[in-house]
Amino acid sequence: MRTVALRFQRTLARPADVAGTGFISGRPIRVRFHPATENAGVVFVRADRPGVPRTPALASFVSDTRRRTTLGSATDGVTLVEHVLAALAGLRIDNCVVELDGPEPPGLDGSAGEFVRAIRSAGILTQSANKPVWSVRQPVVVARDGASVALHPAADATLRITYALDYGATSPIPRQSATARIAPESFDAELAHCRTFLLESEADSLRSQGIGRTVDFADLLVFGERGPIGNTLRRADEPARHKILDLVGDLALTGLDLAGHVVAYRSGHGLNADLARRIIAREAHATAPAVLAFPARRRAA
């Protein structure tokens, strides 16, 4: 690993709330984003649980990656965290306390759009502490069962993600790919609005398990034989772009600001978390970067 740039850390200028219904639990849930001190990172807090347990948003706390990313224990942890984490990472919010009164954030429309709008409305505060931007010196690759995801070395201080989606030649979800540069100024338009999607057979299976009973076809993208049921795509490549959104959230579990090119083929939350762990292991063995003297400043954006 090597440091390719330094920037100032960022948090919210004031708290921001988003309310809705949980996709998994079917419960009304409110999430509140709180400003946090420098170097605090992102921490999830379960305000509804005894002792108000806290779970850091780090790959070492990932406990399940089946169809979504779960952090912490079954009783005190938080599930379906990837869209909240994508909103924070996409806007480069380094330090935040994410307070929940339930086991998951509200599902909303299956995208990160509402979270992004709430954070922007609260304002973004530039802090005094530095945040290094890291890149790998050699590609880091994880692969399993015909899927793969890799982080390639950076040509500059930016992060790009390419995702190739392939459900097979007979799937109603067409093969497609998308590439996005991850930056606060373009995150809203390029990725934040892209929604969760699944096949009708997958939706039926989840409902038989009691999951998603409060969700209908207008709430997220469910693909039947002829395409989306009772819904329309926001972009032709919306599924691939949602996979990029998931990757932004899952890679935020490194706790690092990354530069380089992530290239993924059919990867999901499990492989994404594996890549995050590999990157953390590389960073732990890297030589500590020299600290550059930045003039202290603090302002709301």
Characterise the protein shown here.
The chain has 301 residues and is α+β, with helices and mostly antiparallel strands. The protein has one domain: Ribosomal Protein S5, domain 2. It contains 6 helices and 20 strands. Strand 15, helix 4 and strand 16 (221-224) form a beta-alpha-beta unit. Helix 1 crosses helix 5 (238-251) and helix 5 packs parallel to helix 6 (269-284). It starts with a strand and ends with a strand.
Per DSSP, what share of the residues sits in E-state strands of 2 or more residues? 25-35%
Number of helices: 6
CATH level-4 homologous superfamily: lpxc deacetylase, domain 1
**CATH fold assignment:** Ribosomal Protein S5, domain 2
CATH architecture group name:
2-Layer Sandwich
* Number of separate structural domains: 1
Contiguous low-pLDDT stretches (5 residues minimum) are 287-299
As a percent range, the share of helical residues equals 10-25%
Average residue-wise pLDDT: 92
CATH class call: Alpha Beta
Shape: globular
Spatial order of the strands forming the largest sheet: 2-3-9-4-5
Give the SSE order as H and E letters.
Answer: EEEEEEEEHEHEEEEEHEHEEHEEHE
Structural class: alpha+beta
How many angstroms separate the termini? Answer: 31 Å
What is the total tally of β strands?
A: 20
The radius of gyration over CA amounts to 19 Å
